[in-house]
Design goal:
mainly alpha; 79 residues; 0% strand
Amino acid sequence: MRTTIRLDDQLLEKAKQYALAHGMTFTAVVEDALREKIMSRPGYKKKAPVKLKTVNGNGVNPGVDLDDSASLFDLMESQ
């Protein structure tokens, strides 16, 4: 996506120099900097995977459609 941003002249020059020195485009430098800043926020840290407890059983009952939440709700209420 194309967008326009306003940068301090010194920051712009340093970013261009950094891109040239590291064989990157200016766009890649800006994207990397934004990703680093945004992803370093506490709410964006990778979390440990959730381990779900499973039990033995015979699977889904015949006629139960797990993609149909309304019929699942009806089935749960009827039992």
